[in-house]
Amino acid sequence: MDYRKNPAFRKLLINLKYNFVTDVEELVRRILKSFFEMRPNLFSTKQHYFVVPVPLNRRRLKQRGFNQADMVAKYLCERFPHCWFLNCLCRQKYQVKQSKLKKTERVKNLVGAFEINPGYEDLIDGSDIIIVDDVVTTGTTINECRKVLEDLGANSVCAFVLARR
Protein backbone atom coordinates (compact mmCIF):
# COMPACT_ATOMS: atom_id res chain seq x y z
CA MET A 1 0.00 0.00 0.00
CA ASP A 2 1.33 3.44 -0.88
CA TYR A 3 1.19 5.18 2.47
CA ARG A 4 1.22 8.64 0.84
CA LYS A 5 -2.27 7.95 -0.51
CA ASN A 6 -3.73 6.73 2.79
CA PRO A 7 -3.41 9.26 5.65
CA ALA A 8 -4.71 6.84 8.30
CA PHE A 9 -2.20 4.16 7.34
CA ARG A 10 0.57 6.77 7.18
CA LYS A 11 -0.27 7.88 10.73
CA LEU A 12 -0.27 4.27 11.91
CA LEU A 13 3.20 3.69 10.40
CA ILE A 14 4.57 6.89 11.90
CA ASN A 15 3.26 5.90 15.34
CA LEU A 16 4.75 2.44 14.99
CA LYS A 17 8.09 3.49 13.54
CA TYR A 18 8.89 6.86 15.09
CA ASN A 19 6.67 7.28 18.14
CA PHE A 20 7.32 3.71 19.34
CA VAL A 21 3.62 3.05 19.89
CA THR A 22 3.41 -0.72 20.25
CA ASP A 23 -0.30 -0.85 20.98
CA VAL A 24 -0.98 -0.43 17.24
CA GLU A 25 0.28 -4.00 16.76
CA GLU A 26 -3.24 -5.44 16.94
CA LEU A 27 -4.42 -3.02 14.26
CA VAL A 28 -1.46 -3.97 12.02
CA ARG A 29 -2.33 -7.64 12.55
CA ARG A 30 -5.94 -7.00 11.50
CA ILE A 31 -4.79 -5.16 8.37
CA LEU A 32 -2.47 -8.04 7.49
CA LYS A 33 -5.22 -10.60 8.16
CA SER A 34 -7.54 -8.77 5.77
CA PHE A 35 -4.77 -8.45 3.18
CA PHE A 36 -4.02 -12.18 3.25
CA GLU A 37 -7.69 -13.18 3.23
CA MET A 38 -7.99 -11.35 -0.10
CA ARG A 39 -4.84 -13.14 -1.37
CA PRO A 40 -4.99 -16.70 -0.02
CA ASN A 41 -2.42 -18.04 -2.50
CA LEU A 42 0.17 -15.30 -2.09
CA PHE A 43 2.84 -17.72 -0.89
CA SER A 44 3.04 -21.17 -2.45
CA THR A 45 2.31 -23.96 0.01
CA LYS A 46 4.44 -26.30 -2.10
CA GLN A 47 7.62 -24.90 -0.61
CA HIS A 48 8.85 -23.73 2.77
CA TYR A 49 10.13 -20.25 3.37
CA PHE A 50 12.43 -18.76 5.95
CA VAL A 51 10.97 -15.40 6.94
CA VAL A 52 13.80 -13.00 7.72
CA PRO A 53 13.08 -9.60 9.29
CA VAL A 54 15.31 -6.66 8.40
CA PRO A 55 17.32 -6.09 11.57
CA LEU A 56 17.64 -2.85 13.47
CA ASN A 57 20.92 -1.61 14.81
CA ARG A 58 21.32 -2.52 18.51
CA ARG A 59 21.22 1.14 19.51
CA ARG A 60 18.00 1.76 17.59
CA LEU A 61 16.43 -1.46 18.90
CA LYS A 62 17.22 -0.43 22.47
CA GLN A 63 15.81 3.05 21.84
CA ARG A 64 12.63 1.76 20.18
CA GLY A 65 12.16 -1.35 22.30
CA PHE A 66 10.97 -3.52 19.41
CA ASN A 67 11.57 -4.20 15.74
CA GLN A 68 8.44 -3.65 13.65
CA ALA A 69 9.80 -5.95 10.91
CA ASP A 70 9.99 -8.75 13.53
CA MET A 71 6.34 -8.17 14.37
CA VAL A 72 5.27 -8.53 10.73
CA ALA A 73 7.57 -11.52 10.12
CA LYS A 74 6.20 -13.36 13.16
CA TYR A 75 2.65 -12.72 11.97
CA LEU A 76 3.49 -14.25 8.57
CA CYS A 77 4.81 -17.34 10.33
CA GLU A 78 1.66 -17.61 12.47
CA ARG A 79 -0.55 -17.23 9.41
CA PHE A 80 1.33 -19.60 7.09
CA PRO A 81 2.54 -22.88 8.61
CA HIS A 82 5.06 -23.35 5.80
CA CYS A 83 6.83 -20.11 6.81
CA TRP A 84 9.49 -20.27 9.53
CA PHE A 85 10.86 -17.25 11.38
CA LEU A 86 14.63 -16.92 11.05
CA ASN A 87 16.36 -13.99 12.74
CA CYS A 88 19.61 -14.57 10.86
CA LEU A 89 20.69 -11.08 9.82
CA CYS A 90 22.34 -8.36 11.88
CA ARG A 91 23.55 -4.85 11.22
CA GLN A 92 27.31 -4.50 11.33
CA LYS A 93 27.36 -0.82 12.13
CA TYR A 94 25.21 2.14 13.05
CA GLN A 95 24.03 4.11 10.01
CA VAL A 96 22.28 7.40 9.56
CA LYS A 97 18.52 6.80 9.26
CA GLN A 98 17.61 6.09 5.65
CA SER A 99 14.60 8.40 5.89
CA LYS A 100 16.96 11.35 6.35
CA LEU A 101 18.91 10.67 3.14
CA LYS A 102 18.52 11.25 -0.58
CA LYS A 103 18.32 8.24 -2.91
CA THR A 104 21.99 8.25 -3.89
CA GLU A 105 23.04 8.63 -0.25
CA ARG A 106 20.79 5.73 0.81
CA VAL A 107 22.69 3.27 -1.36
CA LYS A 108 26.09 4.35 0.00
CA ASN A 109 24.82 4.39 3.58
CA LEU A 110 23.93 0.69 3.60
CA VAL A 111 26.76 -0.87 1.58
CA GLY A 112 28.10 -3.68 3.74
CA ALA A 113 25.70 -2.84 6.56
CA PHE A 114 24.28 -6.36 6.96
CA GLU A 115 25.85 -9.68 7.77
CA ILE A 116 24.70 -13.14 8.75
CA ASN A 117 24.57 -14.08 12.42
CA PRO A 118 27.09 -16.84 13.15
CA GLY A 119 25.69 -20.35 12.82
CA TYR A 120 23.02 -19.59 10.21
CA GLU A 121 25.15 -19.99 7.07
CA ASP A 122 24.18 -23.61 6.40
CA LEU A 123 20.46 -22.90 6.82
CA ILE A 124 20.53 -20.24 4.10
CA ASP A 125 22.18 -22.39 1.44
CA GLY A 126 19.44 -23.67 -0.92
CA SER A 127 16.60 -22.00 1.01
CA ASP A 128 13.70 -19.88 -0.20
CA ILE A 129 13.56 -16.66 1.78
CA ILE A 130 11.10 -13.83 2.36
CA ILE A 131 12.74 -10.66 3.67
CA VAL A 132 10.31 -8.59 5.74
CA ASP A 133 10.45 -4.85 6.38
CA ASP A 134 7.96 -2.18 7.33
CA VAL A 135 8.42 0.31 4.48
CA VAL A 136 10.24 0.23 1.15
CA THR A 137 11.17 3.49 -0.50
CA THR A 138 14.13 2.92 -2.83
CA GLY A 139 14.58 -0.79 -2.11
CA THR A 140 18.14 -0.29 -0.87
CA THR A 141 17.66 -2.00 2.49
CA ILE A 142 15.94 -5.04 0.98
CA ASN A 143 18.57 -5.21 -1.76
CA GLU A 144 21.49 -5.16 0.69
CA CYS A 145 19.87 -7.93 2.75
CA ARG A 146 19.22 -9.91 -0.44
CA LYS A 147 22.88 -9.71 -1.44
CA VAL A 148 24.01 -11.23 1.87
CA LEU A 149 21.49 -14.08 1.60
CA GLU A 150 22.23 -14.81 -2.06
CA ASP A 151 25.98 -14.79 -1.39
CA LEU A 152 25.32 -17.60 1.10
CA GLY A 153 23.48 -19.63 -1.53
CA ALA A 154 19.81 -18.78 -1.01
CA ASN A 155 17.72 -20.44 -3.73
CA SER A 156 15.27 -17.54 -4.00
CA VAL A 157 14.77 -14.27 -2.15
CA CYS A 158 11.65 -12.10 -2.24
CA ALA A 159 10.37 -9.32 0.00
CA PHE A 160 7.20 -8.52 1.90
CA VAL A 161 6.66 -4.99 3.24
CA LEU A 162 3.78 -3.26 5.00
CA ALA A 163 3.97 -0.18 2.81
CA ARG A 164 5.78 1.41 -0.06
CA ARG A 165 6.45 4.98 -0.94
**Name of the level-1 CATH class:** Alpha Beta
CATH fold category name = Rossmann fold
Residue runs with pLDDT of under 50 for 5 or more positions: none
- Helix/strand-derived category reads alpha/beta
- Using the 3D structure, state the CATH architecture: 3-Layer(aba) Sandwich
Q: Please report the distance between the alpha carbons of the first and last residues.
A: 8 Å
Number of domains: 1
Q: Compute the number of helices.
A: 7
Q: Biggest sheet, in brief?
A: 4 strands, parallel
In percent terms, what proportion of residues is strand? Answer: 15-25%
Number of separate strands: 6
Compute the average pLDDT: 84
Shape: globular
Biggest sheet: strand arrangement = 2-1-5-6
- Write the H/E string, N to C: HHEHHEEHEHEHE
Rg from alpha-carbon coordinates? 15 Å
Helicity level, as a percent range? 40-55%
Helices and strands in order:
Layout: H1 7-17, H2 25-38, E1 49-53, H3 58-64, H4 68-79, E2 83-85, E3 89-91, H5 103-110, E4 114-116, H6 121-124, E5 128-136, H7 140-151, E6 156-164
Helix pairs in contact: 2-4
Structural description of this entry:
The protein has helices spanning about 5-15, 25-40, 60-65, 70-80, 105-110, 120-125, 140-150, and strands at about 50-55, 85, 90, 115, 130-135, 155-165. The strands form 2 sheets. It has a 4-stranded parallel sheet, sandwiched between helices. A two-stranded antiparallel ribbon has the order 3-4. It has one domain: Rossmann fold (3-Layer(aba) Sandwich). By secondary structure, the chain is of the alpha/beta class. It has 7 helices and 6 strands. About 25% of the residues are buried. The mean pLDDT is about 85. Helix 7 (about 140-150) links the parallel strand 5 and strand 6 (about 155-165). The N and C termini lie close together (about 10 Å).
